[in-house]
Amino acid sequence: MTEAAVTGVLLMAYGTPATPDDIEAYYTHVRRGRPPTEEQLADLRRRYEAIGGTSPLLERTQEQAAGIQAALGDGFRVELGMKHAPPFIEDGVAALAAAGITRIVGLVLAPHYSVLSVGEYAKRAEAAAAEAGVGLTMVSSWHLAPGYVDLLAGFVRRELDRLGADPVEVVFTAHSLPVRILDMGDPYPDQLAETAKAVADEAGVNRWSVGWQSAGRTPEPWIGPDLLEILPTLAEAGVAGVVVCAAGFVSDHLEVLYDLDVEARAAADELGLAFSRTPSPNADPSFCATLAGVVRSHA
Questions:
Q1: Nearest CA to 263 among 277, 249, 251?
Q2: What pTM does this model have?
Q3: Do 146-277 and 3-142+284-298 fall under one CATH topology?
Q4: Which of 168, 7, 139 is nearest to 78 (CA)?
Q5: Residues whose CB is less than 8 angstroms from the CB of residue 38 and which lie 6 or more positions away in sequence, other chains included
Q6: What is the DSSP string of 79-139?
Q7: What is the spatial distance between Cα 157 and Cα 201, in angstroms, rounded to a whole number?
Q8: Are 129 and 104 in contact (CB under 8 A)?
Q9: What's the rounded Cα separation, in Å, for the pair 223 and 240?
Q10: How far is residue 30's CA from residue 26's CA, in Å, rounded to a whole number?
């Protein structure tokens, strides 16, 4: 098969600093070129130090890319493109174009669509593809992909069995976004609710809710309720434990390893709540096969 017949896959993720020395440049990029204050930088460094100094996101994303490539097989070439760290989205498009590929499927490693999340990846990918003279088809969302729902349902059942508390609430979370998306008719909150219901139904869970986490440190309001606000409410209602299923995240990274494993767990312990979270899909073979199927359906 010739290179021209190969379909390119641009696999996109948020990105992370590769070393502690890269944190300031990364944070400046996230802030659209505005350097963080000393206090902001110190707080971010503190959170990275709490999980070992850096996030494993790049390594996990590379493993996912390899798994998806293996599941797709011949006829596809997967390249990574990160939003805020090398290799950037534009680098991934350039690598595919340099290989003589003329058709690209863009897939963001985030199951739910928002104009402020997947939409921003798509704009950059489309601009880079146009400049390179290659065609691009974007996957807008895959929040109800059966393999993803099945995987999360299995994780939820396992954690409920392991926790052994009664009653237990399952809280499905995703990264919060500014409230202004609601006025735009953005599908993001509805898609998270759809994922949560599908997983709860598959897992046979009757007691569940949707919450938000990791809101940005900005003056504008963000979607709630935040998980840290939900936990005291559950404790007051007599709930014995909580299983958090971070359905909006697919890799171990800062928002999982710190915001959930450190911050939310400490809050639950203080409230006397048994606490657990479902594993991240990372490079689980069934997850990679599911995303390969999503790519094929858009190729």
A1: 277
A2: 0.95
A3: yes
A4: 7
A5: none
A6: EEEESSSSSBHHHHHHHHHHTT--EEEEEES-SS--TTTHHHHHHHHHHHHHHHT-EEEE-
A7: 11
A8: yes
A9: 26
A10: 6
CA distance from start to end of the chain: 16
> Does pLDDT of 2 surpass 70?
no
Confidence band for 4, pLDDT divided at 50, 70 and 90 = very low
Rounded Cα–Cα distance for residues 244 and 155 (Å): 10
Per-residue pLDDT reduced to its tens digit, 177-208: 999 999 999 999 999 999 999 999 999 999 99
Sorted by where each begins, the domain ranges of the chain are 3-142+284-298, 146-277
Residue 34: its pLDDT value, please? 94
Q: What are the angstrom distances between the C-alpha of 147 and each of 70, 181, 280, 290?
A: 17, 28, 14, 5
CATH topology of domain 146-277: Rossmann fold (3.40.50)
pLDDT at 106 > cutoff 90: yes
CATH number of 3-142+284-298: 3.40.50.1400
Q: What is the pLDDT of residue 108?
A: 98
Q: What is the pLDDT of residue 1?
A: 41
Whole-angstrom CA distances from 54 to 49, 110, 208, 274 are 7, 21, 32, 28
